[in-house]
Amino acid sequence: MSTTRTRLTPAVAIVGGGPAGLRAAAELAPAVPGGTLVLERERDAGGIPRHCAHTGFGVRDLHRVLTGPDYARRMVRAAERAGAEIRTGAMVTGWSPDGGLEVTAPDGLFEVRPRAIVLATGARERPRTARLIPGDRPDGVYTTGHLQNLVHLHHRSPGRRAVVVGSELVSWSAVLTLREAGCRTVLMTSERPRGEAYALLPLAGRAGLRVPLRTRTRVVRIIGKGRVEAVQIEDAGSGRRWNVPCDTVVFTGDWIPDNELARAAGLDLDPGTLGPAVDGALGTSRPEVFAAGNLLHPVDTADVAALDGAHVAGSVLDHLAGLPRPGGAVRVVAEAPLRWISPGTHRPGGRGPARGRLLAWADEYVPFPRVTVSQDGRTLAERRLPWPAAPGRVFRVPAGMLDGARPDGGDVRVSLRR
User: Per residue in 278-288, pLDDT tens?
Assistant: First the structure.
């Protein structure tokens, strides 16, 4: 028995109403005859910034400093004023046989059949279960997203004493959320030899927030029956273990893209990021499907995701105008200690990536790395960069270092050393 779906035919459909999707909608809506539709599964659009009450949003894209909720509201207003239609509570459940989007919404079932699709579904943190942390299964265990939702949207208290697992930027965001809710962070623990966020944050954390950061340590057990009572910590060097009393545990970072729709569409996936494989124009292996934001590089800041949205809008307009995609694509391969690099495809003569930067993730701290780009044993470019490659935050490589790549030269390799 088939289910009848109402067909919608906007020119462009954008899946995801976070910073990347909303900025793409704001750019496309005034330029595209036929309508731009944003499909957002949450009750309200705006993405993760909606429940990040601290400041620091909008620096790169809006050139001002806003709180997360203020930033989210501005993004929504900009898309609506540009003429985009935003449907909230609209869950994209799959793909129709002819390549459309199957949508379940409060007002019915729909098949959305646009001329171009932008996937901007973002990323999520791996929960405790995916990290294989043994022990009891009590209440009081969160990811940062769950914590911020609980505190900022539902105005509930998570507890009184918290252990934060991870030391990325998002980990300090969790600390600020806990503080606002009246919950003290008694320990931040990281397996890395140094904090993963910018050096200023651990210093400020110890001095202002009074958060002790223990590196080279990990949580090996959660203790508690009805509610968390403690976590067991192990020192990586000595193997010594001890219990830290707490009633709240927040697992932060360790990101994975929300790639279910990309996989269901049969799109080529990047083996490093696990998001869709894209070129500099943010085009995927299906010409009418594009991707943007933290679905591609989990995870970067909201303003960088928004600038991805502006970049992908230009590519969508080129596609709708019938401009051909340049051929001669070559893979861009990250070599250790880089885990991944995005975009992972380079088209000589085609559009370069947003902001003229390749985005990469490093597994080791290298303070002033010398980056080498090579192809077929030939060095294309070599440059020492004045910013560090550090675990827990995105490392940026000037895209111009790929300019000498040949379409017939095979994989382009990006490496770094001290």
Answer: 999 999 999 99
